[in-house]
Amino acid sequence: MVLDLISGTQLASVLSGSSDYLLIDCRSFLVFNKSRIRNAVNIRCNSILRRRSRGEMSLDNVIVCAEMRRLFLDGKLPMIIMYDENGDADHKEQTFITSSPSTCHAIWIKTDYFFISGGFKLFQVDFPELCEGLENTYSFSAEGSGGETPCTPTPIYDQGSPVQILPHLYLGSAHHAAQENELAALGITAVLNASSTCENHFANRFRYKRIPVEDNGQADISSWFDGAIAFINEEQRKGGKVFVHCLAGISRSATICIAYLITCKGVSLNDAFRYVKSRRNVISPNFNFMGQLSSLEAKL
């Protein structure tokens, strides 16, 4: 595929006046979630896909957003724009083809392809108002404590607030799961309880799903991955948000969030772990769970 260059100024004009485009962020999942151009979608171009593709990859296989993928395959996106970090990739030698062979010719006729000159780095400097990113909400502040020092220090895993993994996915501990007003303020509509003992406190307000798995070296948490992912996706489709917790928000619930990223965002286990760790730095799935996550990655 040969791409024409588009300047930051031209892209700003497109973002301000048109909706008939697909803006693709070709950077890693971790970098994308720190900051990105408004309305951009990340492609799941991880090492597994690159290895299996043996060269060219079809765009319809790497566009994560289902709605955008459908519009693309229907030939209803007259403009596709791609960018990397610095704009220094060889835009004349891209490793993507437009789509599967059966639809390739029709989409080529209807769609123009562009690559942003200067990449995200330059565009962010020139047009910061057209960029966005997720704020790290993990905090150890004692806000709301009235300045008093408790007799028994709060465990570090219960401090702060639930953290945002994705716009529709939050992670925390059982302590956070007992804070009804805080969950409501975050827009939480459903709770995934990854324990057999933690209470479902507010069944009249939130939708609950329990995963009764223990945090040990024998538990099979992978058998619950499909159900957990379906629960999260169903809530997202309804416009809701899911809070995932176990007792401490360290092992079981973190494993579920990592499995979700691997399955639904197409990122590697390493990148998914690092990303969740960057949001909630106390996470540490046990060795058994890490092995099951590795097996999940190998299957995809």
From TrEMBL:
Keywords: Hydrolase, Protein phosphatase. One of its GO terms (cellular component) is cytoplasm. One of its GO terms (molecular function) is MAP kinase tyrosine/serine/threonine phosphatase activity. One of its GO terms (biological process) is negative regulation of MAPK cascade. Residues 223-280 form the Tyrosine specific protein phosphatases domain. Residues 17-132 form the Rhodanese domain. PROSITE patterns: RHODANESE_3, TYR_PHOSPHATASE_1, TYR_PHOSPHATASE_2, TYR_PHOSPHATASE_DUAL. Residues 161-300 form the Tyrosine-protein phosphatase domain. It comes from the Eukaryota. InterPro entries: Dual-sp_phosphatase_cat-dom, MKP, Prot-tyrosine_phosphatase-like, Rhodanese-like_dom, Rhodanese-like_dom_sf, Tyr_Pase_AS, Tyr_Pase_dom, TYR_PHOSPHATASE_DUAL_dom. Belongs to the protein-tyrosine phosphatase family. Non-receptor class dual specificity subfamily. This is Protein-serine/threonine phosphatase. The lineage of its organism: Eukaryota, Metazoa, Chordata, Tunicata, Ascidiacea.
